[in-house]
Amino acid sequence: MLSQEKLADLRAMIVADDSLRAMGNAGNDAGIAASLNAPSVSIHRKITKQAILRWAASTGGLKKLRTAIAERQNGLQAASEAALAMLSSELPTMAIDAEIVAMLDALVAGGVLAESDKTAFLNRAAETVGEAEYALGQPVTDEDVSASLAGDRPNGKLAILPTE
Amino acid sequence: MALPDYLKVEHGTAIIWGESGGSGVTNTLSLDALASGSGRMGAAVDLGAAWDDEFFVELYVETGTAPTAGNTAELYLAWSRDNSNWPGKVTGSDAAYPTTVADNKKQLGPPTLVLVATADANTTLKQNGVIVRARARYVTPVVVNLLGQAIRDQGTNSNNTSRVVMIPRRILIQDTA
């Protein structure tokens, strides 16, 4: 079961969406949960070692980093070395966070990598999750939906949900 | 004089909880538009100063939107010796079962009957009945909706077919088989 705070967030998501609110008015809590859990939002959460190697093979990304380090052509030697070390690590997966994206942006801005290299990298890290997982950090159940709307249903009976 | 040779069983008069005005309903249990995750408790019944020992109990739930097959609705029977002391926050009157339903229902013990849904819309689902022994003189049902869908929201409440039925099973002693 979601925390009270997340239940309030879930309720806000439901009443803000016409189709979800309509399902809530009809008592179709399972339909709301299914809709919010259906994969619909692309996120970059992590990239596997295998995906990094595939990216390197298709873009020459690792070679570009090595070249930048060897040629000392700009002020990005340190960033290139750090990126190469991270991408070459033995860890099976690497988390994609704001710091990693900023590092890629800096390497693109410095001409070490092309914008298309960065896009290709992130595409290989892309996964599609449900709106609930994207907004609340986890999928929701029928029970979560019911609990989130309990305050809008006097005596446990169906009622028209507000539109705020 | 010859003694009776056979013990038989016969049904007594059914106690039927459902929406007020519904066909056959003797006691109120308003299940119309009961939201998923919510519970409803019925009006208490006085089984009499001397009551039947065994009852056949049935649960009927009318769907609106088809539930996911395998989801459930639970029936609990709450018992009282004096129509005053009730377990699990039951009051003996038809009303919403108080929150938090998932916590309060635990004080009623295991469900008397669990209806397992099929994915049928606008249908009265019927679970096979069970036999219970009366624990005390007063009894009332609590239905908890875990179907993931509301129980059917009828335009006219009395059109609801959701019911809880309790029928006495009485031992009959007689000469003939």
Could you explain the architecture of this structure?
The complex is a heterodimer of chains A (164) and B (177). By secondary structure, chain A is mainly α. Helices cover 60% and strands 10% of the residues of chain A. Chain A is built from ten helices and four strands. Chain A has helices at residues 4-15, 18-25, 29-37, 49-59, 61-71, 77-87, 98-109, 115-125, 131-136, 142-149; strands spanning 39-44, 46-48, 93-95, 126-130. In chain A, the strands form two sheets. Chain A has a two-stranded antiparallel ribbon. A two-stranded antiparallel sheet of chain A has the order 2-3. In chain A, helix 1 (4-15) crosses helix 10 (142-149) and helix 5 (61-71) packs antiparallel against helix 6 (77-87). The longest helix of chain A is centred in the N-terminal third of the chain and has 12 residues, at 4-15. Chain A is elongated. Chain B is mostly beta strands. Chain B has one helix spanning 101-104, and strands at 6-11, 15-18, 27-28, 39-41, 45-46, 54-62, 72-80, 95-96, 113-116, 124-133, 138-146, 163-174. In chain B, the strands form two sheets. In chain B, strands 1, 2, 3, 6, 10 and 12 form a six-stranded mixed β-sheet that branches. In chain B, strands 4, 5, 7, 8, 9 and 11 form a six-stranded antiparallel β-sheet that branches. The longest helix of chain B is centred in the middle third of the chain and has 4 residues, at 101-104. Chain B is globular, with a radius of gyration of 17 Å. The mean pLDDT of chain B is 97. The chains are: A mainly alpha (164), B mainly beta (177). At the A-B interface, helix 3 and helix 10 of A face strand 8 of B.
